[in-house]
Amino acid sequence: MSFCRMLMSDFRRMFQSWNFWLSVLAVALVSLIGSFPLIRVQSSGVSLFRLVTYRLSNSFFLIMTAVVALPFGLSYREDYRNNYRFCIMGRTNLSVYCWSHVVVTASGAFFSVLMGYALGYGLMGTCMPMILESELEALRLSSREVYSSLLLGPAPVTYFICVFSTEAAGYAFLSVFALLMSVSISNSFIILTMPAVLFYGSYVVCSALNLPGIVRWYHILESGGWLSRNIDDIHILMPCIFLYFGSLICLEGLLFMQMAERRQMNG
Question: N or C: which end of the chain has fewer CB within 10 A?
Answer without folding.
Answer: C
